[in-house]
Amino acid sequence: MVGLSFISVEVFAHGVDDNTRAFLEQNTGVQFFPFVYIGAKHMITGYDHLLFLVGVIFFLYRSRDVFLYVTMFTLGHSTTLLLGVLSDIQVNAYLIDAIIGLSVVYKGFDNLGGFKRCFNWQPNTQWAVLIFGLFHGFGLATKLQEFDLPEAGLLTNLLAFNLGVELGQFAALGFILIVITAWRKWPSFQHFSTLTNTLLMSAGLILMGYQLTGYAVN
């Protein structure tokens, strides 16, 4: 997360690479497996989605809780991904990505106990994950709406893209869980949990700042 402060601002564009762009622009008909691949790649390289998931599972110790929260997130982003594209609901990409950055800030702040400390109030964390999941889905939808996807095979391609997103999320989450589970066995986990979530908040603020600047400039 510290590295986010030093890498080129271009990476914050969170856009689509040239090969994927060329495929989407020339796509015709049902392309199930290519869309599965694109969805998985977008999730694995989607640092904002992954940062949010890191925050969500950071203090979840039971498998049942991890499953519940990830399911809430999946339900949210799957709903708005499909709804956004199929209903052609246009959302400003900069603003929606700024809200996704806000979701990272929220989770870091929540993990630090900020709500109880500052407001003597704790939001429902499950509902928060679901609601922010809805915004993450709109963020995924805006990436596809940048291209004039043909109607032929659109639903199948979207379902394939969403399946790829879930597969990418599953793979990334598995890696994150292995790392965090191993880290929890070391005293450094407790020692650095505050620093880690502070960095999580900082990364979210950087993402928000970049996207809001892009909105103002464009």
Automatic annotation (TrEMBL):
Name of the featured protein: HupE/UreJ protein
Q: Which keywords does UniProt give here?
A: Membrane, Transmembrane, Transmembrane helix
Q: Cross-referenced InterPro entries, in alphabetical order?
A: Put_HupE_UreJ
Which organism's genome codes for this protein?
Shewanella denitrificans (strain OS217 / ATCC BAA-1090 / DSM 15013)
* Spans traversing the lipid bilayer: 44-61, 66-85, 91-109, 121-139, 159-183, 195-217
Q: Endoplasmic reticulum: is it a keyword of this entry?
A: no
Pfam families, alphabetized? HupE_UreJ_2
